[in-house]
Design goal:
The complex is a heterodimer of chains A (305) and B (423).
Chain A lengths: L8 H28 L2 E3 L4 E3 L3 H8 L1 H36 L7 H9 L6 H12 L6 H7 L13 H16 L1 H12 L3 H9 L4 H29 L3 H7 L12 H10 E2 L2 E2 L2 H26 L9
Helix pairs in contact in A: 1-13, 2-3, 3-7, 3-8, 3-10, 5-11, 8-10, 10-13, 12-13
Chain B lengths: L1 H25 L2 E7 L5 H15 L3 E7 L5 H11 L5 E4 L3 H8 L17 H4 L12 E14 H7 L7 H14 L3 E3 L7 H16 L1 H10 L7 H13 L12 H9 L3 E7 L2 H9 L5 E4 L11 E12 L6 H11 L2 H10 L4 E2 L10 H12 L1 E3 L14 H14 L4 H13 L7
Parallel strand pairs in B: 1-2, 1-3, 5-6, 8-10
Antiparallel strand pairs in B: 3-8, 4-6, 4-7, 4-8, 4-9
Helix pairs in contact in B: 8-9, 8-10, 8-16, 10-16, 10-17, 16-17
The chains are: A mainly alpha (305), B alpha/beta (423).
Chain lengths: 305, 423
């Protein structure tokens, strides 16, 4: 082929809408937040303070105490999701894909429905279910003779965060289930048949044949869970309020950011410290995603059929 | 294309004009009120606004409240964005002072109606030197205890006068077992702080005397007068319903209005909420915070709580000032105090109130020493915010997860970290 290659202008044209919209509503606000965190409110409007907000956030014992508390709670929130939501999701998907299961479509829908409910509804309904005054939880436990196990879970420092994490798991278990279910369905029958001919069935078939084939899907789910959890806010805010009680035991980065940025009751909002927290959250999530991308995803072996 | 559009616009204008009728045409200006009192929406719409509009044709008023907990955050964002309403409902002291200092609220010192208010009434919405007033005081709220009189009669009990009698009473109700002695939860935190600590506290820190001494740095939060209310809160836990740690403010309200709890540590604003809810199922009574010992002085929290200011950026400032002049009038005071029993007018003109419970509350102004909530003036200017910290500490103490002494020490440390007179 002689001469210059034709300009492939259509690539730019087709990319433009997505790039423009994404830039306008994601990149620009993100840079705006980073910029905001470098300023503080001074006598005359806002003044540039460099990294002073971050020095306060990590150096001042009060700010750093609140930050590490929120980060620790957030890590626990994530851990519960990883230990409960994702294994349960995988197990449900494996059960659903069993060929002899009746009413699979019904189960699939029923388990997925909470995912599309609003946080407000989920938070409110669970708060009512678990209420020591009006809830059905004490009555149900009483019915099976385990009334003594009941506690006002959402009001106790030691249980509140775990309870909320499990509520969130209940709500979102449908997502890993669906993704894994799709991955399981995409395994060709020949592979399964070959395994059966070799005498590998049941549990060992799942562990040795199916699990390696769905590992990439599990990886994607893990990273989605990570990003979702570290950006979480709604459920805590709806059920425990912005003060994330009792005694900040359910305070996660999202509620900490909200309180700081917008203020609460007599505490006035501080957009600059808020932006500093948002930046720290962004860095944490970015670091987590990078660890996943470079440390895990590249080592995952993919099979093509 | 253009023609079609024009036709469509014309058609819609005609339709809208026809459907709204002459009322819309007569209203030249519409004022919007920002407020956190979403419970009062109906009263503003049905009673207060029509009374104003009837007297002032040409000015329409819209009451647009948001949820109480989000009010400050939403209001600040709206003011920054320039989308806030013309009239701003003012929180007392620093939250509003900050808005005035950043030129978000207009100076209303020259408003003629300001003469109708005493200096004490205005103090919550003035600059520290008292030179400028920026909100027209609406009402104060009084703390105390409401009780189920029908239940008291049934059990043969009397409202207590002293703290010792108070606990004897609680023990008696608990022993009987029919009623939960007291309705309060620690889940919403502010309930424990506002209806608990700020309710009984003035008795121990001697009202204004202690409050001013704290501001001046002569007393500290670890002094007996400030720790003692926490010790009482710690005792209350035993008399609350099972699982009170997860009991929210609406839960407590319901426990009392459904007749399951005998005593409710209250703010007077509940009168207007409870009366229709109880609807005659039982009789309500009220008693002021018990005194320390027989014959002691009683103190009440008579907190200047709510006022109305003018958005400095309002394009309808003249109409808004007309409205504010009316809000400062005796006519409004009577209308408001009777439409919202439990919100006591701050107007100097005496107001006739019909509600017997509201009369009971307001009667304590004569027999007790009034003060305002200790954390509101000046002491919540810094970070950590004393008011918000007090919520957390009160809830912890009530739930028994922090000792009164530790809680007080933590509050003092937080206050001293930024407030010079306490250092």
């Amino acid at each position: 082929m002689a001469g210059r290659r034709a300009r492939r202008w259509h690539i730019g044209v087709f990319l433009a809408p997505a790039v423009l919209v994404y830039t306008a509503i994601m990149i620009v606000p993100l840079l705006g937040t980073l910029n905001l965190s470098l300023f503080a409110r001074g006598e005359e409007g806002r003044v540039f303070v460099g990294l002073a907000n971050f020095a306060t956030l990590f150096g001042d014992p009060r700010w750093s105490g609140a930050f590490w508390n929120a980060l620790g709670n957030n890590a626990w929130f994530f851990l519960i999701h990883m230990l409960v939501q994702n294994p349960v999701g995988v197990a449900l998907a494996a059960l659903l894909s069993a060929p002899r299961l009746r009413m699979a479509a019904f189960y699939r829908t029923a388990i997925f429905v909470p995912t599309i409910l609003s946080f407000v509804i989920v938070g409110f309904v669970w708060k009512l279910i678990l209420s020591p005054l009006w809830g059905i939880a004490p009555g149900m436990l009483d019915g099976i003779g385990l009334r003594s196990l009941f506690a006002p879970w959402l009001g106790r420092e030691e249980y509140a965060l775990t309870t909320l994490a499990l509520i969130s798991v209940w709500q979102f278990v449908g997502i890993p289930m669906m993704l894994i279910y799709a991955a399981l369905l995409s395994i060709p029958d020949e592979v399964i048949e070959a395994a059966e001919i070799d005498g590998i069935t049941g549990w060992s078939q799942f562990r040795k044949i199916k699990l390696p084939l769905i590992l990439p899907a599990i990886g994607i789910i893990s990273i989605l869970t990570f990003v979702g959890n570290f950006n979480a806010f709604d459920l805590i805010y709806v059920s425990q309020g912005a003060l994330a009680g009792p005694d900040f035991s359910t305070d996660i980065l999202g509620t900490f950011l909200y309180r700081t940025f917008f203020g609460f009751q007599l505490q006035l909002g501080d957009p600059h410290m808020g932006a500093a927290i948002a930046t720290a959250m962004f860095a944490i999530i970015l670091a987590g995603v990078c660890v996943y991308l470079f440390g895990i995803q590249r080592r995952l072996r993919r099979y093509q059929f | 294309m253009t023609r079609t559009l024009r036709l469509a616009l014309l058609a819609s204008t005609v339709l809208a004009g026809a459907s709204l009728g002459s009322a819309a045409a007569a209203q030249d200006v519409t004022l919007t009120i920002e407020s956190w009192r979403n419970d009062d929406l109906q009263i503003w719409q049905d009673t207060i606004i029509p009374a104003f509009e009837a007297a002032n044709p040409g000015i329409g008023v819209v009451f647009a409240p948001t949820a109480p907990a989000e009010y400050n955050a939403i209001l600040n964002s709206k003011l920054d964005a320039g989308s806030a309403g013309d009239l701003i409902t003012c929180r007392p002291f620093d939250a509003s002072l900050e808005l005035f200092n950043s030129d978000k609220l207009a100076d209303l010192t020259d408003l003629a109606a300001m003469e109708n208010f005493s200096d004490v009434a205005k103090s919550a919405w003035q600059t520290d030197d008292g030179a400028s007033t920026f909100c027209v005081p609406l009402a104060s709220v009084i703390h105390g205890f409401m009780y189920n009189r029908t239940a008291f009669d049934e059990l043969g009990l009397e409202p207590p006068a002293t703290m010792d009698e108070f606990y004897t009473l609680l023990d008696a109700i608990q022993e009987d077992g029919t009623y939960i002695p007291m309705a309060m939860g620690s889940a919403d935190q502010w309930e424990a702080a506002t209806m608990g600590y700020q309710n009984i506290g003035p008795t121990f820190w001697k009202g204004e005397e202690g409050r001013r001494a704290l501001i001046a740095g002569e007393q500290s939060l670890t002094d007996e007068g400030w720790v003692e209310p926490f010790r009482h809160l710690a005792r209350w836990g035993a008399y609350l319903g099972e699982g009170f740690e997860a009991q929210t403010y609406p839960d407590s309200q319901n426990l009392f209005t459904l007749g399951r709890a005998a005593i409710y540590p209250a703010g007077s604003w509940e009168i207007g909420v409870f009366t229709p809810q109880i609807d005659g199922a039982f009789e309500m009574g009220a008693f002021p915070p018990p005194v320390m010992a027989e014959g002691g002085t009683c103190y009440i929290s008579d907190h200047t709580d709510i006022a109305l200011g003018l958005n400095a950026a309002s394009p309808n400032a003249d109409a808004a000032r007309t409205f504010l002049e009316w809000v400062g009038s005796a006519e409004f005071a009577t209308l408001y105090a009777n439409a919202l029993p439990g919100f006591f007018s701050l107007n100097s003109a005496p107001v006739e109130m019909e509600d017997p419970l509201a009369q009971e509350f307001v009667g304590w102004r004569e027999s007790c020493e009034p003060t305002i909530r200790s954390t509101y003036q000046i002491l919540s200017r810094g970070t950590p915010n004393l008011e918000n910290e007090t919520w957390n500490a009160s809830a912890n103490v009530l739930a028994g997860t922090e000792t009164p002494e530790d809680a007080a020490a933590r509050l003092q440390e937080g206050l001293a970290s930024w407030y010079e007179p306490q250092q």
